[in-house]
Amino acid sequence: MNIKEHDNFMVGVQHALSLPIRARCAELTVLLDRGSLLELHSFFPVLIDNIFGPQGTLAWGLRSITEAQEDFHQLHHFLSPCGPLFKFIYTLLKDPNIKYEFPLSYLPTKIRQFLEYSHGHPFYSELVHINPQTKQIMSLLLNPFDYYIFHFAYHLINPWQQRTGAYVTSWNTVYYVLCCDYIIHFLPTDPQSAVLPVIYYNGKNPLQAIKCSLLDQPTSSGLINAENLSKSKEEAFQKNLDIHHPRNDIWRSETVLTVFTDLWLHSNQVNEPTNTLNMSYTSMPPMRLYPNELPTGEYMRVVRVLIKQLHAFSQSAKADDTHLAELKKITIPMIQGKFYIFLRNLIHRWPLDGSFRLVLELWLTYIQPWRYPPNNLIKYLNKKSPNPDVEDVALAPQNSVDREYVPFIAENLLTYVVVFQQLLPRFGRVDLTSPKMSLMLYRITKVFDQPNLPGYLKEVEQCVESDRVLYLWEGESPHRHTANHWSNNLPPLSPTSNWSTNTTIEGNRKPNVSPIINRNSFLSRDSYTEKKWSAIVKQTIFELEGPNFVYKPLFSNPPATEVYDLIIQIKRSIRQAEELVKMKIQEEEKMYSGFWGHIKYFLQGSVSNDEFTLRDRQKVPMYLQVALQNLMDMFNVTGEIGEIEPESPSLTLNNNSFDMSNDFKFLTPERVRERIKHIKYDGDPDLHPIRSTENPFLVRMLYQISSKINDVHGRTFYRLYHQPTFTGRLMRQLLCPPMTVYKYDKSIPGSPRVSTNLPPRISLRVLASYRFLTYLCIGAFCAWLFGYKIEVYFMFLIVVFLLYKCVRALRRDEIPVRHNYPTQGFGNISFNDSF
Question: Where are the transmembrane segments (predicted)?
Answer without folding.
Answer: 792-810
